[in-house]
């Protein structure tokens, strides 16, 4: 969390939860049919997660956060990135980050209602 805040992000919404297998499948539906879908959704429903909506006032927040995360494959992640430090493998890569502003909105709305994301622009 310290690394995220140091990169000028702040938390708009946060909660600890646990996904059911069906919820994980719904969240990752864009990957349905891919070889890693089953193991990814099984892993994502295997224990608690922390869902967050982050905001950054200047620049492209999605791009900046993905840079902070590092490559999806931790073996390819740059030194000092979150995945380089904490990820175990391609599918157990410690943290998820949306790949576009549209997906960031969809994923935020998956976990939080508009009233739980007070102050964030939803369009």
Short account of what is shown:
The chain is α+β, with helices and mostly antiparallel strands.
CATH superfamily: Nucleoside diphosphate kinase-like domain
Proportion in helices: 25-40%
At CATH level 2, the architecture is 2-Layer Sandwich
Q: How would you name the oligomeric state of the polypeptide chains in this document?
A: single chain
Which regions contain 5 or more consecutive residues with pLDDT less than 50? none
- Series of H and E elements: HEHHEHHH
Gyration radius (Cα, Å) is 14 Å
- How many strands? 2
Number of helices: 6
| Overall mean pLDDT | 91
Largest sheet features? 2 strands, antiparallel
Q: Structurally, how many domains make up the residues?
A: 1
CATH class: Alpha Beta
The coarse overall form would be globular
Report strand order across the widest sheet.
1-2
Distance between the termini: 26 Å
What report would you give on this structure?
With 123 residues, this protein is α+β, with helices and mostly antiparallel strands. Helix content is 37%, strand content 12%. The longest helix has 11 residues, at 101-111. A two-stranded antiparallel ribbon has the order 1-2. The chain has helices at residues 2-6, 21-27, 37-44, 61-69, 82-86, 101-111, and strands at 10-17, 49-55. The chain has one domain (2-112): Alpha-Beta Plaits.
